[in-house]
């Protein structure tokens, strides 16, 4: 989900209150699938394994939120088309200096195209820069940054291959009466939107819109649940369906998409290609974030993509970048605990649920993944969960690892007190590469070799980022794995020192 932000949840909620629209626009049907690859994980799946996972499952387009060197090197000569992001914090610098834009393009686009053979097709300038919650912070810099990046691509001789886009949140448009046909840009940025889209259109660029029915549902207790999902064949339409002339909108995606299209057409910009930059459903960290709901939503989405079925205003499905490929246990949880659980696959590339692609073919897991030893850190059998030192130990463990699955309604929300403590201890232990010192919580913990997983709660074993089957010692991806492991080890040693001192 850009990464998703708490700001986006608020923006979508405000927008939905008008009557559930958002929007997108259609392009010719593509044979492959597109997905967002986020890299904020403590033990990232090695790049070459990730690329093979993409190819094995038919993803031929990928979006990176920043020009991540290891990911880009892993994508070399892969045949996968790449969209790379220029983060919001770089907008002002690039907007204020053509030279800064040229240097960014040289280092992050030209270098990987010419030296590594990466098939970069788009540069995403900024990420949802016009969010209401940003209070105009990036509004003045976005268009100049786009213009300078475009000029830099022209100078580099890449403008015909690499196009420019701006991923936007659905709050940049609205419908006063809730009908998609009444869609228009948000009044405070209408002029800016027209100028931006006109520039993109004139220079062969595209528009990218992020849509999140889950955030609408999660943020608004009154949001109609069935309207967030794609209706099953033969199922009655949602009672929240929107009648717009002779068209009945039965789900929020179609209504949102066509609201944007109407806004573009209203300003004579209807020919701009529009892709769906982010859309998906998380599996943990919230009442509605679970595997069953994620399967229902994403299977409906994949069925639409495979069938090429678009919306009433754009009958052909546009490129849709599903959010996301993998879980990321090091992302900010400001938007909510669900933020680390958007992946179709778990952190290790194993499928969370069965998804069927074209021809009834199921998604397949990552190959060649190696794990740390089969051992877990848990609360000692003779230790009491009521021990006064437990609270501080758990707080510390969760501060430096991912405990988002412990929340109410989450996959580990049903654990008892002992289970909660053990889960937190193990998360820290695994994040620390199973260093024995990381399981020394004031003599409250012990290492076991019997899997303590219970029901839906999985006590994880982390990926061994020091070795795996597909990467050779001299490969670019292998270089990344080694540096990641070293960074993690140094971090953990520091944390363990702090922990010991604290107790």
From TrEMBL:
InterPro entries for this protein: GH, Glyco_hydro_17, Glyco_hydro_17_plant, X8
Pfam family, one: Glyco_hydro_17
Signal peptide annotation: 1-19
Keywords: Cell membrane, Disulfide bond, Glycoprotein, Glycosidase, GPI-anchor, Hydrolase, Lipoprotein, Membrane, Plant defense, Signal
Keyword Disulfide bond among UniProt keywords: yes
Coiled coil (residue ranges): none
Catalytic activities: Hydrolysis of (1->3)-beta-D-glucosidic linkages in (1->3)-beta-D-glucans
UniProt EC number: 3.2.1.39
GO CC annotations on file: plasma membrane; side of membrane
Domain X8 span(s) in chain numbering: 375-459
Top-rank taxon: Eukaryota
One Gene Ontology biological process: defense response
Cellular localization per UniProt: Cell membrane
Membrane topology: Lipid-anchor; GPI-anchor
MF-aspect GO terms: glucan endo-1,3-beta-D-glucosidase activity
Family statement drawn from the similarity comment of this UniProt entry: Belongs to the glycosyl hydrolase 17 family.
Protein name from the UniProt record: glucan endo-1,3-beta-D-glucosidase
Lineage: Eukaryota, Viridiplantae, Streptophyta, Embryophyta, Tracheophyta
């Amino acid at each position: 989900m850009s990464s998703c932000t708490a700001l986006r949840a608020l923006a979508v909620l405000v927008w939905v209150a008008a009557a559930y629209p958002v929007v997108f626009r259609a392009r010719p049907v593509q044979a492959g699938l597109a997905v967002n690859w986020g890299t904020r994980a403590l033990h990232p799946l090695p790049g070459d394994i990730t690329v093979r996972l993409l190819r094995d499952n038919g993803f031929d387009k990928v979006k990176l939120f920043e020009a991540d060197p290891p990911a880009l090197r892993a994508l070399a000569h892969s045949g996968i088309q790449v969209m790379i992001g220029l983060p919001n914090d770089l907008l002002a610098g690039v907007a204020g200096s053509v030279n800064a834009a040229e240097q960014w393009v040289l280092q992050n686009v030209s270098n990987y195209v010419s030296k590594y053979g990466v098939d970069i097709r788009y540069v995403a300038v900024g990420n949802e820069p016009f969010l209401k919650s940003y209070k105009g912070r990036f509004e003045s810099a976005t268009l100049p940054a786009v213009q300078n990046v475009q000029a830099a691509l022209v100078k580099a001789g890449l403008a015909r291959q690499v196009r420019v886009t701006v991923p936007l949140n659905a709050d940049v448009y609205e419908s006063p009466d809730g009908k998609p046909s009444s869609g228009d840009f948000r009044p405070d940025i209408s002029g800016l939107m027209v100028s931006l889209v006109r520039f993109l259109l004139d220079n062969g660029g595209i528009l990218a819109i992020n849509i999140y029915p889950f955030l609408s549902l999660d943020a608004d207790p009154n949001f109609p649940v069935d309207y967030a999902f794609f209706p099953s064949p033969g199922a009655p339409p949602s009672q929240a369906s929107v009648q717009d002339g002779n068209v009945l909108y039965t789900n929020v995606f179609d209504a949102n998409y066509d609201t944007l299209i109407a806004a573009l057409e209203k300003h004579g910009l209807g020919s701009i290609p529009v892709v769906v930059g982010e859309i998906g459903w998380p599996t943990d960290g919230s009442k509605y974030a679970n595997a069953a709901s994620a399967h229902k939503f994403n299977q409906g989405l994949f069925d639409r993509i495979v069938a090429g079925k678009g919306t009433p205003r754009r009958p052909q499905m546009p490129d849709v970048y599903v959010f996301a490929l993998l879980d990321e246990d090091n992302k900010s949880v400001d938007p909510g605990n669900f933020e680390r659980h958007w992946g179709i696959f778990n952190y290790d590339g194993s499928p969370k649920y069965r998804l069927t692609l074209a021809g009834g073919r199921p998604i397949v897991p990552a190959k060649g993944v190696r794990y740390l030893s089969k051992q877990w850190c848990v609360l000692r059998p003779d230790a009491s969960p009521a021990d006064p030192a437990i609270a501080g130990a758990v707080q510390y463990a969760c501060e430096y690892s991912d405990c988002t699955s412990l929340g109410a309604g989450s996959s580990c929300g049903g654990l008892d007190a002992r289970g909660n403590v053990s889960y937190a201890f193990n998360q820290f232990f695994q994040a620390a590469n199973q260093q024995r010192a990381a399981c020394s919580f004031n003599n409250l913990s012990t290492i076991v070799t019997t899997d303590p997983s219970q029901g839906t709660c999985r006590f994880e074993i982390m990926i061994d980022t020091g070795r795996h089957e597909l990467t050779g010692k001299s490969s670019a991806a292998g270089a990344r794995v080694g540096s990641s492991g070293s960074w993690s080890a140094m971090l953990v040693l520091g944390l363990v020192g702090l922990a010991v001192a604290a107790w």
